[in-house]
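Standup, Tuesday
Yesterday: got the pipeline producing structure tokens again.
Today: sanity-check two examples.
Blockers: none.

Example 1:
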Amino acid sequence: MEQRERNLFTASLKTVKGTKYGFINKQGEFVIKPVFDYALDFQENGLAIVEEQNRYGVINHAGRYVLKPTFQSINPYSEGRAVAMDDNGSHVINEKGQIITKKPYSFIGSFQEGRAVYSTKTDSDYLYGYLNLLGSEVIRAKYRFANDFQDGVALVQKMDGTYALINIEGKELHQYTKPFISYLGNGLLAFKEADDFEAKAGIMDTVENILVTPTYSWIQPFQDGRAAVNISDDYKNQVGLIDRTGKYYIKPKYMDIMMLGHNRVAVSKAISEEEPFLGANYAIATTNGEFLTDFNFTQVSPYENGYASVSDGKETYFVDKAGVKSRRYPTVNGEGTLTFEGELIQSLVDQRVTYFTRDGKLVWSQNKVIPLNKQYKVVEKKYQPSNHYLVYYPAVEGMMDEKAEQKLNETLLNLSKAEPTSEKQDYTYSADFNVEFYKEQLLVLEIDGYFYPLGAAHGMPSKETPSIHLTNGTIYELKDLFNPGSEYVKVLSDIIEKQIKTDDTYSYVFQDQYKGIKPNQPFYVNNDALFIYFAPYEIGPYAAGFPTFKIPFAEIMNMINKKGEFWQAFH
């Protein structure tokens, strides 16, 4: 498919049906209406991946489906091919939305230099090989592991544990005896003398001429003839920048070094050397070791069109190759990134997307008001006491009872955890919200938070789903849906237990941990059903998120208090 100039841009809109995605033109007008649950940017081939009802498809510039949303995931196109996954496995699709592989595979990587790694499962293990652009197995699956092609070669590990370098036809160019090898690019390999995570790594060329003896804890891929290396044995990194001979251009004493392109690097220094997990500040330097700026930045992005996006904790803007702030392009208050998108500049700052013209004129920003009807609306408010604490919380407006409205909004503020921060903040917290359901006098919101202790393996998500009566501001509990004295806890618990035992969707649930629901169990409703959910780790693994069970009202109608205020609010 021919390459197209970028003239449509992803944009989201908060609605009474949640956040919806569409595409605007360079004037900020929706050309493709915001009807998708999620959307990625249009690629150079004029196609975009979109999501509807937890399934992914591909659309063209006219907003028409080239591939209907039937897949669990679709990776971005590479070399005119994308990888789509369904219940059967992974498939290769072309730009017409056609599946070109003859069968599903356990795994397919992105195409690089006309080849994509694939894997098949045997009785005891996975084997890896390569597909070509026709979706055919051009190198059969016979390797324990395989890397993407780069510079016309790929490093593979054979079933006996040894490594080899192959060309795109699968011919072995060299076999290696080292117990650990990885490809660094520019015709260089990292190697270890022991297959041990803690063993030091050195550098050799593809025919095993050793250039640097094992010295480094890790080595990043080479770019512009340079690579970042770490000589530290613990979490207090000592990162420097070397050439292929191991000569240092930046001494190994920094937290990290990131390649930026244009012979530039971002060098980071820990805010606290004793607690490096608390974060770092960045400086920009050349690949020859000349520092162009001080450690002024909290974020730095790779160079594009001769400019790099940076944040200093208060503002986000572009700097040129000398590290000097650009007066040509816009400066945005807040922390994030700026990117060139066709004729526009996209600002992703403080978790909100905005578009500007190149000279800084505002083209489009996400709405802060969600109209429910002529009387009521939900307004987005922002609370940000520090760079590590950002809360977007909802406020309801339009209630006739001002005191009830004030009390409700104070509760919503508390549910969003808009709280003061400590002087030494060793965590981050962010929160946002959506309208989950709205009908007549009932508004159901979803408030999502994420608490992350700095240095932890992962953070902990939170969710609140208040069901609100818009006339008096009442937030209902689960018991308010049912007749007084009904055994709703037992009935709902039994229904969920049956779903866990009979529906493969819930195979991840730790059945010995499920003990039924609590009287005040978290829930939400829509027009047809009750949804009961549990917190992460409560009855399943962290990766399962919030296990949620749908119970149609038709199954429990005999218990519902149909004359109660809760039910009457939306019926």
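Example 2:
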Amino acid sequence: MDPKKISDELSVAPQIQPEDLVNVAELGFRSVICNRPDGEAADQPTFEEIEAAAQAQGLQIRYLPITAGKVRDEDADDFGKALMELPGPTLAYCRTGTRSTTLWSLSVAKEKPTADILAAAKAAGYDMAGVVRRIVNGGKTPTDTGDAKFDVVIVGGGAAGIAVASSIHARKPDLEIAILDPADIHYYQPGWTMVGAGIFDPETTAKTMGSLIPKGVHWIKSAVAAFEPKDNAVVLDGCRVVKYDRLVICPGLKLDWHKVEGLVDTLGKNGVTSNYRYDLAPYTWELVKGLKSGRALFTQPPMPIKCAGAPQKALYLSSDHWLRTGVLKDIDVNFMNAGGVLFGVKDYVPALEKYIERYDAKLNFFNNLVAVDGPAKKAWFDVAKPDTPVERIEVEFDMMHVCPPQTAPDFIRVSPLADAAGWIDVDQATLRHKEYDNIWSLGDVMNAPNAKTAAAARMQAPVVAENLVDDVNGKSPTAIYNGYGSCPLTVERGKIVLAEFGYGGTLLPSFPKFILDGTKPTRAAWILKEQILPPVYWRAMLRGKEWMIKPERVSAG
């Protein structure tokens, strides 16, 4: 017997034998539910035999037999009622445990988020894809059969989603394309670093979603609850279903603020801020201007994160302001990095290290922020140096810029499209899903080993568009993504180290060295970031104008 924990109240198991009930009681279970009808198999003990053995151990037991593949709504209600009436924890069993898990999933559907239910079942080894629509529908069988249908459905209306919609529409205007996204506002997130340094006004980084959806592309203003790739369907919150011929997945990352104890309660006050949020970036600038002495912490969580350079960009621009205003000598600047290097591509590190020296900033590697007490101005870090036991340290601060831990959204991580780590599983060259030929992914949630930046999405959009249209036309994919990503590291006001690189850290500069040497801080790169890239984003990338980003081709040889 090998019970699998589903929740604190319930574990499930395949068929048990009367002699297993001794062990069931020893494991701390107080009740048992049998979901397998008598007589399904010749070697199966009867419920009467199991009941006698359970009662001999002082266990309460309930018989709720379910025919395989026929879990009715009322069966789930009965299961939920039994769980409430029986003393817990409870062990439920059937032939494999699937029926018991299905009953639980449907019985808790009204009170638990769909992603949490799917994750609990998946962790126990059970796939609830077959009942996902019912889970989304509060545990009830949906009666609405009026499914919308499109040639191409795009999940996510951020940089990647709108760019790829525009690129597909430009190549094949007759395709019916829909973008699924519940947001009202679209943000130019690369601009928030500049907002936090008092260079951009926050309003310039936001536009209404409706103003950016390409003409001829449908916008369904709804969140995604789950995927049914075998049925070419996306299930929305509220159990509406959208069908597709081809699917493109590109939502943003989940910023997991709650993973740091006490952080949510103190964000935006007590000197704790983050350029990773539109409403907090102005507070960063307020803190920078106001700090005249004390300790400033800049944190970076474990990878992967959006724009890996953003945490240190905040450090450089803040320190530059303090240097220019003559107070840097009285400020203790600390970079608290959960990783072990300043930047992942070694060619750019020497230039960055010179600025670390210039600002007299302390580099604290393998320091991961785990807790904050805002009013007390204290933070705790787990220091996990290689081959050394983890040590928790307490650090006082006057200002702290936090980069939150980040993961794929819950509905991505629990989906049948994700790899073991929770990212959409794609071929890193074509960005096509490894199992489902009619699905592609780009942007932050797919598992290709590239930097998660808007510049990467800008390069990926035409690759996905080209390969998807090739597929529509009955051809094999012809476009290749080389892993390109860009990180304009704002090392001081007026100068940037323009990091451009692909898979394996290969340098992929957009300009000849005599025009712009990305490994050195330059004024030209600053002008690019401040004056050229925002209009390129709004007027080119999001409109399908693919300047300087022609995809590489599959070699004919």
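Quick observation on example 2: The chain is about 25% helix and 25% strand. The first strand starts at residue 4 and ends at 5.
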